Q: What sequence folds into this?
């Protein structure tokens, strides 16, 4: 496994986290366009979305459920071939960790996300 990443992948993952943290739908749409293919698909144990509109609606729902919370990456980006993974946490406004997990996915040749599968908690 590689411990180095390309600037394109770093930029994509940064835009991915910015998407999760962006309350403004118009700005969020720009971040989704930057980070995701048009058929991008996100799944986790609680929700799923496919396509830019559905991704934005999913994020809006997370904002409604966890007002003021912020996602942040807490690991390096690990990548090989067209696969990527990284760890994250969701923190409340006072810094308390609400949930943490790992995302794994597929990226395209241009560095954008095609698929992300989110997992919550530590591996048992």
A:
């Amino acid at each position: 496994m590689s411990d180095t990443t390309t600037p394109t992948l770093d930029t994509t993952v940064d835009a991915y986290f910015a998407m999760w943290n962006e309350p403004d739908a118009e700005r969020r749409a720009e971040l989704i366009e930057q980070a995701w293919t048009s058929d991008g698909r996100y799944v986790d144990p609680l929700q799923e979305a496919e396509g830019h509109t559905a991704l934005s609606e999913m994020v809006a729902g997370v904002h409604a459920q966890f007002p003021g919370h912020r996602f942040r990456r807490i690991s390096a980006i690990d990548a090989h071939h067209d696969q990527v993974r990284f760890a994250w946490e969701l923190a409340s406004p006072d810094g308390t960790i609400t949930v943490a997990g790992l995302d794994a996915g597929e990226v395209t040749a241009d560095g954008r996300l095609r698929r992300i599968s989110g997992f919550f908690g530590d591996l048992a």
